[in-house]
Amino acid sequence: MSKAILLSKIAGKQLGSLPEDIRNEVKRALYSLSEPENGGMLDTKKLKGVRGGADLFRLRVGNYRVVYFEDVDSFRIIQIFHRGKGYKWL
């Protein structure tokens, strides 16, 4: 059973501002993330040193990063950004 993908308001704006080809790539990766049989084939990693000790993960899609956390029935997308921006906001 696949999980829902929920975007924060910020992530929705960031996704909308991406060039169309990158946006489609990110969407494809998010759909793959929601499918249990495809999740292991993606480049995901748990983030270390997060303030508050939250379990955040990053999904690498080319030069872009998707930061998310997993609930029981959904993936909640927090931010989508170019890798050059870095993770200082965490």
Written overview of the protein:
By secondary structure, the chain is an alpha+beta fold. It has helices at 9-17, 20-34; strands at 4-7, 44-46, 57-61, 64-70, 74-82. Helix content is 27%, strand content 31%. It is globular, with a radius of gyration of 12 Å. The chain starts with a strand and ends in an 8-residue tail after the last strand. It has one domain: RelE-like (YaeB-like fold, 2-Layer Sandwich).
Sheet with the most strands?
5 strands, mixed
CATH topology: YaeB-like fold
DSSP strand tally: 5
Kindly report how far apart the N and C termini lie. 31 Å
Q: Strand order of the main beta sheet, please?
A: 1-5-4-3-2
Uncertain residue ranges: none
Instruction: Count structural domains.
Output: 1
CATH class: Alpha Beta
Question: Any chance you could write out the topology, listing elements then pairs?
Answer:
Blueprint: E1 4-7, H1 9-17, H2 20-34, E2 44-46, E3 57-61, E4 64-70, E5 74-82
Parallel strand pairs: 1-5
Antiparallel strand pairs: 2-3, 3-4, 4-5
